[in-house]
Amino acid sequence: MSENEQPPADPRLLAALAKADLDELVTRLLGLARRKMCRRWKGLPPSGETPEDVVQKAFQQALSGVRKFPKENVGLYVFFVMVVRSLVSHLAEKEENRYVHTPIEESGDLLMDWKYTPRESELAAAADVACVLRDFAADKLMTDYIRLLIEEQCRNAAEYAHALGVTVAEIHNMNRRLARYRDRQRRETRPTDERPN
C-alpha cells in the first residue's frame, strides 16, 4: 500500500452499513448534529460548518479508519452518535481555541502525534446503550424513546410524547420502566459482599 492510499474500511462497519437504512440513519444524525450545534451556538458555529458537514465528516472518518468501529457489541447507530457528538465537541474546542496561538513548529508535532482513540468511558457508555436497546428490542416504542433520549431531541416529557405520538403518562411509565431496569442492572452487577442478605 503506498503512502497516499487509505487502508480499507473495517469489514464489520461495511457489513453494518449494508444492512442499515441509511436514509433514516443520516436523517437522525443530521437532527442530532443540528440540535447540538444550535444549543451550543444558537445557530451555526463561527467557522460556518453545517450539520451536513459534520455528518459527512463522521462517515468519511469512519470509512477511512480514523474512527475505529469498536470491537465490543456496539450498534452502528450508537457508533455514529458517538462520532457526531465528538465532532461537534471538537468544533466547540476549536472555536474556543481560535485565539490561542501555537508556534508553527509545535503545532506540526502535535498534529503528527495525535490520533483519535475512543475513551473507555465512551466505549462503556455505547456498550451500555447497545445492551439496553437489545434488552428492549421487542418493544419498538421503548427503543424509539431510548433513541430519542440518546439524541437529546426533546427538552421535556410533553415533547417526547408529541414526538412519539403517545401521552405524557406513557412517557412517565417508560421512565419508570427504565429506572427499574437500571436498578435491576445495578443489583445484578454489584459484588456479592455488597448485596443485602
Which descriptors apply to this entry?
globular; 67% helix; mainly alpha; 9 helices; 0% strand; single chain; 197 residues
How would you characterize this protein structure?
The protein is mainly alpha-helical and 197 residues long. It has a domain at 11-116. 67% of the residues lie in helices and 0% in strands. Helix 2 packs across helix 3, helix 2 runs parallel beside helix 4 and helix 3 packs across helix 4. The longest helix has 22 residues, at 168-189. The radius of gyration is 20 Å and the shape is globular.
- Annotation field: number of helices: 9
Q: What fraction of residues sit in β-strands?
A: under 5%
Series of secondary-structure elements, N-terminal to C-terminal: HHHHHHHHH
Low-confidence stretches: 110-114
Classify the helix fraction into a percent range. Answer: 55-70%
What average pLDDT do the residues reach?
78
Structure summary, number of beta strands: 0
Distance between the termini: 61 Å
Biggest sheet overview: none
Rg computed from alpha carbons, rounded to a whole number of angstroms: 20 Å
Structural class: mainly alpha
Principal-axes shape call: globular
